[in-house]
Amino acid sequence: MFSNDKPTQASEQLIELLGQPYDAKQIQAILEPLGVKRITKPDSPFQDDIIWSVKASVRIDVYRSPKINKLTGRDDLSSDQWIVGAILFLAPGSDDRIKKSFPGQLPKGITMDATPHEWIDVYGQPDIYEKGDWLGGSGPYLAWRKSGINISVEYETDEDSSVLTCVKFCLIGCMGAWSSDYPEVFAP
User: How many Cβ atoms are within 10 Å of 165's Cβ, its own excluded?
Assistant: First the structure.
């Protein structure tokens, strides 16, 4: 997704895991430079689970078959393992647990301080660009459909400013309800 070079940023390494079996030790090693000493394993009795790293301000959504296959429309994902479906880089305002922004660089040199225009400069015109209130937020919302993945960027706006709260990279189809609202962008 990034280039033929080996991903160097923690964010790029995590995104490269989309569609791969979940490996807590591998993810902990990627996040170790950000102070993460331990990452939990999925233990949900359901076909999906959320893995939090509050210290790194990262959320990882994992799925089991058949849910991952139904969401993505794919049949080539492992049926007996948890599969990484989404990586979210978070900032305060995204969840009550998150007290600081993801401290690392995002792909292509973007940081959690980036404006919507900086995202557009790097990724091109978004497939969706909501500038005001949208379902789930009050600030700009941008989304792109790229080769095999979706990228979404969420801002919260108050009377004085707009703040980036969540950057999500996920397999096509793992955007939940958005797949019905904008199937041309989010549905498999």
Answer: 20
Neighbours of 135 (CB within 10 A): 9
Is the bond leading into 42 cis (omega within 30 degrees of zero)? no
Q: Which two tokens stand for residue 21?
A: 């079996």
Q: pLDDT band at residue 18, thresholds of 50, 70 and 90?
A: very high
Distance CA 185, CA 179 (A): 8
Q: For 117, left (φ over 0), alpha (ψ -120 to 50), or beta?
A: alpha
d(Cα 117, Cα 12) in Å, to the nearest integer?
21
pTM of the model: 0.91
Hey, is 164 helix, strand or coil?
strand
Q: Both tokens of residue 2?
A: 């990034």
d(CA 56, CA 176): 24
pLDDT higher than threshold 90 for residue 49: yes
162, β-bridge pairs:
157
Element of type H or E holding 14: helix 10-15
User: Which has more pLDDT, 180 or 103?
Assistant: 103
| DSSP secondary structure letter of residue 6 | P
Beta pairing class for 48-53 and 128-130: unpaired
